[in-house]
Amino acid sequence: MENEHSMVVKTKKLEVTYPNQPLEPDQPLEPDQPLEPDKPLEIEYFIRLGRHETILYLHGLGCSKNDFLSATTTGDLQAYTLVAFDFPGCGNSPYPENIPLGIDDLVEITNSIVSKLSLDDLVVIGHSMGGLVALLYIQRYGEHIKGFVNVEGNLAPEDGIFSREITKHPFAEFLKTTFSDLKEEFSRSDNRGFQKYVDTLEKCSSPKAFYDYCPSLVDYSDNGNVLQRFIELRIPKIFIYGSENYWLPSIPQLQNKGCEVVEIANSNHFPFYDNPRDYYKVITQFLHRINNA
Fold first, then answer.
1. Which residue from 290, 162, 150, 135 is spatially nearest to 220, judged by alpha carbons?
2. CA 177, 178, 181: angle at the middle one, nearest 5?
3. Contacts 24+ apart (CB under 8 A), 66-70
4. Residue 28 resides in a domain
5. Residue 21's pLDDT is what?
């Protein structure tokens, strides 16, 4: 953990059991693949305690909890308890060798972590893939959720451009060329957020986890009716997007349904890196409206 945060942020590890993964009818068990793993999943998280309610951050595909670290030094958020964790195969959470995980598994892992940490009265922030995980989590376990900040979470087929491309390749090809090509494409961007993303992919992202999360991410984007699910949530919610992504087809649909939609100027898919001042200002204002409702 960086020194500037060490006095206020505690990084810890916890263990969660594997989500139940029943086999489909007539689906054989792969050789050496146990039905129940020998050891639980190890998840690394950080927590910064505060007086107000808890904000839980769920990161995107190939990202990490560090995307939320700057929130700990944001003055307007000093009163809130802040929590973020690394999904398996991201950041400092290892990925299992023999059991592939998908979006539904991440939902159950999120629920386990919330339970183990006894988190309540939550506002959930979900970025990209984390926005989809957050949406499904809230639908299944949302009795204690006070609000939802969706930061370019997957709501439509167009939201899965890169993950869709990855699903076209077998893992061996992805590992040999596709993953490197993807990082090279991101590295050519002048955007600060994409530069940070490449750095994260290089240092602390499991290629296997990245690959395994993509099929279910694409499937939910295509067939999960996730836009309508978001619209129908009966809690305070907001959709945040970077100004360079003004073309996202879900934006006018959300606006037509009366959902709060906010553009962050001078930013792309990672507004917390591109324009953190405006990004956290929007989130703080949203939190104030929840508290004053």
1. 135
2. 85
3. 66/91, 66/200, 67/127, 67/270, 67/272, 67/273, 68/125, 68/272, 69/2, 69/5, 69/9, 70/272, 70/276, 70/280
4. no
5. 52
Q: What is the pTM of this model?
A: 0.92
As given in the structure block, the two tokens for residue 171 are 């893992």
Residue-number span of the structural domain to which 131 is assigned = 42-292
Interval 48-95: pLDDT, tens: 999 989 999 999 999 999 999 999 999 999 999 999 999 999 999 999
The reply to whether 16 falls in a domain is: no
Any residues with CB less than 8 A from the CB of 275 and at least 6 apart, and which?
242, 264, 265, 266, 267
Q: Which of 99, 119, 105 is nearest to 45 (CA)?
A: 119
Question: Which residues sit opposite 10 in a β-bridge?
Answer: 47
CATH number at residue 275: 3.40.50.1820
Burial grade of 100 (CB within 10 A; 0-12, 13-18, 19 or more): middle
Q: Is the dihedral of CA 62, 65, 70, 76 positive or negative?
A: positive
**What is the domain count for the chain?**
1
Structural tokens at position 9: 């942020």
DSSP classification of residue 131 = H
Q: How many CA atoms lie within 13 A of 277 on its CB side?
A: 2
Query: Bridge partners of 239?
Result: 150, 261
Alpha-carbon distance of 237 to 231, in angstroms, equals 9
Position 58 in a domain: yes
